[in-house]
Design goal:
The structure is a single chain. By secondary structure, this protein is α/β, with parallel strands linked by helices. It contains 23 helices and 19 strands. The protein has a 6-stranded parallel β-sheet, with helices on both faces. A 4-stranded antiparallel β-sheet has the order 1-4-3-2. A hairpin with a 5-residue loop joins strand 2 and strand 3. Helix 8 crosses helix 9, helix 9 runs antiparallel to helix 11 and helix 13 crosses helix 21. The protein is globular.
Length: 802
Amino acid sequence: YGSMHGDGRSYGSMHGDGEVDETEAYHLKQPIHVGTTCSGMHVFETGDDDFSIQTTESEKAPNSTCPLNIHMGGNVRSLLCRFTAAACILLYSIFVALGKYELHIHPLLGAGSICTLLCTTNNIKRKRSRLGSTFISRISKAFCCKSQQQHTGTGQFENTSSNMNMLSCSKRGDPNMNRINILLVLLPCLVYGMRSVGGHMADNGFEFNQSLHKHVANDFGKLSAFAMSAFLVPVARHSILLECLGLDPRYGLRVHIFSGCIAVVTGLGHGIYWFFIWMLVQKKEFWEIIPSGDCWTKTRHDHEDCSAQFVNLLGILCGVCFIGLSVTSLWWIRRNYYRFFYVSHIVFSILLFYGLAMHYNKMILYLAPSLVYYLASCVPALVQAFRSWSEGGALITKVVHIPDSRDCVELSIQMDEHHKLEESLCGKYVRVCVPEISKVWHPFTVYSDQDDPHNLKLTFRCTGPFTQDLSDRLSLTKSSGVQNPKFLVDGFYGAEDRLSNALDHETIVIVAGGVGIVSYISLLNKLRSTTRSSINSETTFQTNRIILHWTCRDEGLIRYVKENYLDFKDEDFRNFPLSLYIHHTHAINNESTLCAIDKEDNMNYDNEWKGQEIVPRGKPFVPYQLSSGHRKIAQNLPAAILFSLLTWGNLWIILYFYKNVQTKKAVLSRIYVLISMSLYSIILSGLGLLILQWASQHSYSSVSTADNCGDSSTCTKNKDDASTKDISVSTEGSSDDFSFDLENQPISYQIKHSQGRPEFNEDSFDLPDTCVFVCGPASLLKSVRECCKSDNCAIYEEIFEM
């Protein structure tokens, strides 16, 4: 996991079987197939985090359409994994619609175990979890996809006859999660509600008596329980089902919010209906429905009347928790008081789950999918974070307070040398927690520098209490004798690979606001690496143009990012030209100030850009150790075994306590199962991580012994020398073929400065097969979304606010 520096180096040619054939390949070194572009090229990843492009004579069709490419070689695992996840989610929805609360957990746990074992990073996330995202997109369009059209070269289009092309929609982009929520969440709940209420009404001859009122009121409560039965699955950390379907966690958050809204409405409806029964039908006083003083004595806890009154009281408390969750989750509170929202959300959620478990004896069976899956996904990550805290946190190697940027700070975090970055950082982020400042986890986009691939970087602006306190704490230099705070990092998140998204379109438009530009640094480096590795190839990309609009008011931030991350050469984007438009929104006296940014006048900033001296603390960052997605199934075994033990073990605990410990009268006996599940998950996760760490250290020590490297510096030097030697290019011609006659080549990288905000309209994105990547404030996202309405325009948003 992590970044790939994309340094554009090229390597010798390779033929897959060691024989000469009609395949041309460049820049291969232990290549791994990671996807196929729309122009028929196969994209490979080499061992040095770079790309190669391989084409065959039969695939050189510049006007061919872009069907849903399926290669049954290494993709068998990804296909099986993806369709297993989709089928099991569909089966879960069917069980919900039928009211099978004792069976609806099995499809989700089975899918999680199988997908954890079979998940492969390079096929699922590079080749884009493409089938998963496309599958979700197809569902969101209600299976109404337009068949792809092929240009005949005469100015007309004709429909292709390929069956596979029928699966290819002209409109791509982020999936419509509203329709997904309706199909997979709302529809099953409606079917269950109609079947249950209709059945009870039919049994009572459609006569609204006291018995029917009770049944209907309980149906509302069960409907709320079904809505919550899996609403924690999409927000669990490192959710394997989201990874297999190629969905970013922010899409899962929308499912969580939608399910939560249904649960709140139906849960409160259940309580209000029962108040109607008590007050108007049974004519009871309020004090008659809650426990009296005698019920709080130990000798009367099992009394039938007291048990019912305790159930009523717990129902009222759960209703209060529902209201508290709803109010504290409002967007305004989340945006302005995130810490308050975070803490109250956790407190109310814990109280709600314990209250619901005691409120209804069978409630634990309804909530089992959410509880079991969430514990299996989150507890190992939290245990690893606790271990990182005990070791001093992640090692921060550099802190830069960017001058003239309105308090922007860049951090560099060293990666563990034994955990090679297997995945592009395009569209990825991590969760950060600094216990000294706040116990809350905050998301931050991460990227890497092509000249410093062993360090993760993140940039933030001090806009809230956490970022301001973190900046102040990091500003304490070495002279003060204060170490950096313990910096906990959990990652990586973000299922989709934005590089694959980009290469599926002819025109790439990137719109970034302010510090949002860092979301696309890794993407630009990857595109740069891809085009340089295919310079000598006769194949053309589907992509033929890149346009970057960056709106920023901070001259210091513009200087820093441009000098360190956007300082490309003209030949870097030879295959698809890059046009960078920097829109300065601050007051500028004259145009000479704009031009000065492109000149070598950054001497005054050099000392501040070098970063401050810091007192090192902690160890290099280790990504989530139980993540799956490795290239070999054997590497996925530890994660699959632990996940299966946690899920199926907790399910056994639930069934055991339900059958042998819980009773209908003893309300307090129903919380023992939750305590047992939590302890089991913590103990097993700790043991699993210890065993995995021991096995990893043993494996690394064996490798180092086999390498016969007595001195670590010598080993490092040899590796550097080897990588330097690999930079040579071997093709059919001379190595000089790699050079360009720049005077006869068109300009492929240009920067233009302008003052004021860009004015977008529908014509701005009305280009053939355009994708728009946008990251910035809500106003910028809204303006781009309103202008990108054409069928040729697909939007990919980077947003953390829901």
